Amino acid sequence: YIERFYNPQRRHSTLGYMSPVEFEEKAMLA
C-alpha cells in the first residue's frame, strides 16, 4: 500500500486497479 504514495498516478495491481480515492475508502473500512 505504501507504493501508492511513491507512485500516486499509477494504479497498481495490488490495489485491484482502483483509483487512489476508492482505495482510501476501502482502506478505512478494512
* Quaternary structure state of the chains depicted: single chain
Calculate Rg over CA atoms: 8 Å
User: How would you sum up the global shape?
Assistant: elongated
Structural class: mainly alpha
What does this structure look like?
The structure is a single chain. The model has no long low-confidence stretch (mean pLDDT 61). The protein starts with a helix and ends with a helix. It has one domain (1-30). It has two helices and no strands. The protein has helices at residues 3-6, 20-29. The longest helix is centred in the last third of the chain and has 10 residues, at 20-29. With 30 residues, it is an all-alpha fold. This is IS3 family transposase. One of its GO terms (biological process) is DNA integration.
Give the structure's gist in a few sentences.
With 30 residues, this protein is an all-alpha fold. It has two helices and no strands.
Q: In terms of topology, how is this protein built?
A:
Layout: H1 3-6, H2 20-29
Question: Keywords, please?
Answer:
30 residues; mainly alpha; 47% helix; 0% strand; IS3 family transposase
